TrEMBL record:
<dbReference type="InterPro" id="IPR022278">
    <property type="entry name" value="Pser_aminoTfrase"/>
</dbReference>
<comment type="pathway">
    <text>Amino-acid biosynthesis; L-serine biosynthesis; L-serine from 3-phospho-D-glycerate: step 2/3.</text>
</comment>
<dbReference type="InterPro" id="IPR020578">
    <property type="entry name" value="Aminotrans_V_PyrdxlP_BS"/>
</dbReference>
<feature type="domain" description="Aminotransferase class V">
    <location>
        <begin position="7"/>
        <end position="355"/>
    </location>
</feature>
<keyword id="KW-0718">Serine biosynthesis</keyword>
<dbReference type="InterPro" id="IPR015421">
    <property type="entry name" value="PyrdxlP-dep_Trfase_major"/>
</dbReference>
<dbReference type="InterPro" id="IPR015424">
    <property type="entry name" value="PyrdxlP-dep_Trfase"/>
</dbReference>
<dbReference type="InterPro" id="IPR015422">
    <property type="entry name" value="PyrdxlP-dep_Trfase_small"/>
</dbReference>
<keyword id="KW-0663">Pyridoxal phosphate</keyword>
<keyword id="KW-0028">Amino-acid biosynthesis</keyword>
<keyword id="KW-0808">Transferase</keyword>
<dbReference type="Pfam" id="PF00266">
    <property type="entry name" value="Aminotran_5"/>
</dbReference>
<keyword id="KW-0032">Aminotransferase</keyword>
<protein>
    <recommendedName>
        <fullName>Phosphoserine aminotransferase</fullName>
        <ecNumber>2.6.1.52</ecNumber>
    </recommendedName>
</protein>
<comment type="similarity">
    <text>Belongs to the class-V pyridoxal-phosphate-dependent aminotransferase family. SerC subfamily.</text>
</comment>
<dbReference type="InterPro" id="IPR000192">
    <property type="entry name" value="Aminotrans_V_dom"/>
</dbReference>
Length: 369
């Protein structure tokens, strides 16, 4: 297959912009006339130093990160941060909890991991049906919590916060793995933000952490050194060998975002793309069913069933097969929820999304009763 014939709607690792890949291809064998691959650069070299510094500067300018926030590049993915967050921020004194707002499988996993280290307070009633976010007036927040955790976009269930939770001074920790740099956010409202790279900001291997500096130095004594925010910060993320290639790719993606309208451009595109898909769903008279409440529908991952709310296996298989024949791939829903999931990260174009929306309309016309 040729790349130009494939439309990749993968939930991650996700499609990267063509311009990024073309540049990476050049630098793979000879980085900026150094005669070595970008993969072969020493992490202590001047060349790599400028790669990591530029990546940080570009991220700072894209998100308007205030001076009193540090940017760290770490390994271990989003899952690593499920452990790093409690190890760095939990206070084990009686009465102090770590509060988790569980709205899907990723925040559920994060809460489960945190329970290994200390007392976790679930802010919302336990559920397995992740289709909405109860109103804030119903939340059970502990004013003495050491932090409040939430996931801004639940990649599997398609539940996205359209607001930043109010925590009345308790540090707010956010997993932005699947929607960082897709909308403007006021960084000063957060204690910690983390995001794995492989969806909206690069390839797998690196996790970005943005942390308010007064939260450094609170780690539990037995924390693994590579997960310690303070240690990583003191060493400018070079405590050990960092994921150099992944940081390099991330830098290219940040640059691409800057050249394509910045965060405002990404936000606008995300609304247009997700709107195209939700419009087809909403005008299908129940043929396509998205289980998520309208007020928290994700702009990044659109899950839906075909035929009924429970989904019709035959129709869903046919949909996936026909879409694949037309070059539209990676549309199968997560195995835990089934159905279809359309992932619309920043490298997916409006044109590709329009082709998918047209296919959905066509499929509807052929198969509606
Ligand atoms: N958080 C979110 C929102 C995710 O979507 C994922 C993975 O898809 C993770 C965390 C886990 O990330 P990783 O696979 O990098 O550990």
């Amino acid at each position: 297959k040729e790349r130009e014939h494939v439309m990749n709607f993968s939930p991650g690792p996700a499609k990267l912009p063509d311009e990024v890949l073309v540049q990476a291809q050049k630098d793979l064998t000879n980085y900026a006339g150094t005669g070595v691959s970008v993969m072969e650069l020493s992490h202590r070299s001047k060349d790599f130093e400028s790669i990591i510094q530029r990546a940080e500067q570009d991220l700072r300018s894209l998100l308007d990160i205030p001076e009193n926030y540090k940017v760290l590049f770490m390994q271990g993915g989003g899952t690593g941060q499920f452990c790093a967050v409690p190890c760095n921020l939990m206070d084990l004194k009686p009465g102090r909890t770590a509060d988790y707002i569980v709205t899907g499988c990723w925040s559920e996993k994060a809460a489960k991991e945190a329970e290994k280290y200390g007392s976790v307070n679930l802010v919302l009633p336990k559920t397995k049906k992740y289709t909405g976010i109860p109103p804030e007036s119903e939340w059970n927040l502990n004013p003495d919590a050491s932090y409040v955790f939430y996931c801004a976009n639940e990649t599997v269930h398609g539940v996205e916060f359209q607001f930043i939770p109010e925590t009345n001074g308790v540090p707010l920790v956010c997993d932005m793995s699947s929607n960082i740099l897709t909308r403007q956010v006021d960084i000063s409202k957060f204690g910690v933000i983390f995001a794995g790279a492989q969806k909206n900001i690069g390839c797998a291997g690196c996790t970005v952490i943005i942390i308010r500096e007064d939260l450094l130095g609170r780690a539990l004594p037995n924390i693994p050194a590579v997960f310690c925010y303070n240690t990583m910060n003191t060493n400018n993320s070079l405590f050990n060998t960092p994921p150099t290639y992944s940081i390099y790719i991330m830098g290219l993606v940040f640059n691409w975002k800057k050249e394509n309208g910045g965060v405002d451009g990404m936000e606008e595109n995300s609304l247009v793309k997700s709107g195209l898909i939700y419009d087809v769903i909403d005008n299908s008279s129940g043929f396509y069913v998205c289980p998520v409440n309208i007020d928290c529908r994700s702009r990044m991952n659109v899950p839906f069933r075909i035929g009924s709310a429970e989904g019709c296996d035959v129709l869903e298989k046919k949909f996936l097969d026909q879409a694949a024949e037309l070059g539209m791939i990676q549309l199968k829903g997560h195995r835990s929820v089934g159905g279809i999931r359309v992932s619309l990260y920043n490298a997916v174009t409006v044109e590709e999304t329009q082709i998918l929306a047209d296919f959905m309309k066509d499929f509807l016309n052929k198969h509606r009763n």
